[in-house]
Amino acid sequence: MGKPGTDVYVVGVGMTRFGIHIDRDIRDMCEEALFEAMQDAGAYPDDIEVGYVGTVGLAWDAPIMTGQIVFEQVGITGIPITRVENACGSGSNAVREAWLALQSGLYDVALAVGVEKLTSPSPDQYQMLSRLGGADLMLEGSMGFFPPGVFSMAALRHMEQYGTTREQIAQVAVKNNYHGSLNPKAHYQKPVTLEQVLNSRPVSYPLNVLDCCPISDGCAAIILCGADVAKRFTGKPVRILAAAQRSGTYKDDADLRADTTQRAAKEAYEMAGLGPGDIDLAEVHDCFTFAEIQHYEDLGFCKMGEGGRFVEEGLTGNPSIIEEAFRPKMRYCWRHLSA
Predict the structure, then answer these.
(1) 118-134, pLDDT tens digit by residue?
(2) Is 30 a catalytic residue?
(3) Residue 119's closest CA among 51, 171, 187?
(4) Stretch (H or E) spanning 265
């Protein structure tokens, strides 16, 4: 058994390509990601002592017992398996729960999975409402206050208060689609121009369809272990320095902002003994392009109100850094999947 407060390491990762996979079910996708993670770690099913699955549970073939069903596909049975559901954060929350389980000292090796099957052939009304709403369907949903509207209102306030431009917001999509073109596992595989983003179909002003994340199917898996057992695995161990989580306070906010990200970032920075200036590479949630601009500011990468200029000046997408960080790994994954 591990020790309370032990260091936790990533020793294996696996991921499917994300996209519209009408011909694949949740078992098939999870099997691919789980086998790849175990192969990457040099692990076997019996090595896994506890597992967590992050999903919003919309897969028609595994709507409730998702974790038990997909783990059994690769021979992982008889262990504690917990489903974690927390909207866009479900997958990362599963990783944090696995990290906490190892920190507790009760387990040595944990598996975390994030999976969604969002392109079900015949989604019912409940599923459609669940996909549209990430908040209170009784109050906000009944008034049509769904995520695109939330972020478009926040974007408009930011534009009015700080002078952020529509072009700066669209530049996030240009950058991220370019990054996706370097990754054979990304949903979007082609670069887009600023003009294409600005001229794409309107959704909720100022956001157009290319400012919005796509509906996607896919799975990612990660194997974690304590420091004392990392040497049992062949994967190169990477230590997790911090994992922080916060929830909203439900207080009125005239700026349509929440300090949730700021509080979580502060905790993570303090836990890791680092600050915003120490970060060389960040993967920032971009459910909508403006959300990423907010996160730049909330994570401390730039001052409040300067997120638009931050992306416009190219400070968030140095091509040489991205290619150096991801291309070798992506080429390996592509060869592995093609073998």
Answers:
(1) 887 555 545 555 555 55
(2) no
(3) 187
(4) helix 260-272
Is the model's pLDDT at 184 over the cut of 80? yes
Q: Where are the domains of the chain?
A: 8-119+215-240, 147-214+257-339
**Residues 88, 212, 302, 333: which is the catalytic one?**
88
The CA-based angle 169-114-243, given to 5 degrees, is 75
Whole-prediction pTM = 0.87
Q: What's the CATH fold of domain 8-119+215-240?
A: Peroxisomal Thiolase; Chain A, domain 1 (3.40.47)
Using alpha carbons, select from 81, 85, 160 the residue that is nearest to residue 115.
85
User: What average pLDDT does range 277-301 have in this prediction?
Assistant: 94
Q: Mind spelling out the 3-state secondary structure of 269-319?
A: HHHHCCCHHHCCCCCCCCCEHHHHHHHHHHCCCCCCCCHHHHHHCCCCCCH
Query: Which two structure tokens, joined as six digits, stand for 185?
Result: 């596992």
Q: Reduced to 3 states, what is the DSSP secondary structure of residue 108?
A: coil
Each residue of 221-248: pLDDT tens digit? 999 999 999 999 998 999 999 999 998 8
Task: List the beta bridge partners of residue 218.
Answer: 116
Give, for 53, the enclosing helix (H) or strand (E).
strand 50-54
